[in-house]
Write a structure and sequence with these properties.
The protein is mainly alpha-helical. The protein contains five helices and no strands. The chain has one domain. Helix 2 packs across helix 3.
Length: 177
């Protein structure tokens, strides 16, 4: 089914929400990476926040998902009428999304059989999401993006990374979704 075209104003406003997901993904990943003890409630909260935001970013890039609603914000909305699909539209996020879904929201027997997943936010999440994000940023019409996009970066995080150092902050206060 064809997507309804969005106005430039709607896309720009929507891009602020996408930016928020990416920003919180980066911040939660940074906080998780900075935790020395990974098996604490606080570290688990940072990891789960990272996974929720990663899943939302995956959904933004996945135009072929069977569960798309007409009001979902998708990357393809920013390229109406393009006959050539973007490389990120065919990125196989399946294994990552399935692992995230099992870890976060599905109590299943396959989850109980898996060994304890040790998440490396750089290798498991950021390195998978960075290429489609970079391609999207390079090919999208900048006038359709919120001003905060210019500071967005999904660079690797490490335990020495300070949460405040180099972390882009919103240009205006924002609440979560």
């Amino acid at each position: 089914m064809a997507r309804a075209p969005r106005t430039a104003d709607k896309l720009k406003k929507a891009s602020g929400h996408v930016w928020y997901e990416l920003w919180m993904l980066r911040e939660a990943a940074t906080l998780f990476a900075s935790e020395q003890q990974k098996c604490t409630p606080r570290a688990n909260a940072y990891l789960e926040s990272t996974l929720v935001h990663a899943r939302n970013v995956i959904e933004f890039f996945r135009a072929d998902c069977a569960h798309i609603c007409s009001d979902d914000i998708l990357a393809v909305d920013y390229f109406p009428g393009h006959a050539t699909p973007k490389r990120w539209a065919s990125t196989d996020f399946g294994p990552l999304k399935k692992t995230i879904n099992k870890a976060l929201s599905h109590l299943s027997y396959s989850r109980t059989c898996a060994t304890n997943k040790v998440w490396d936010v750089n290798a498991d999440i950021l390195s998978v999401l960075r290429p489609p994000l970079d391609e999207f940023k390079a090919s999208v019409d900048r006038s359709l993006l919120d001003c905060d996009w210019s500071s967005l970066d999904l660079r690797d995080v490490n335990s020495a990374t300070s949460v405040a150092t180099g972390a882009p902050q919103p240009s205006s206060p924002r609440a979560g979704p």
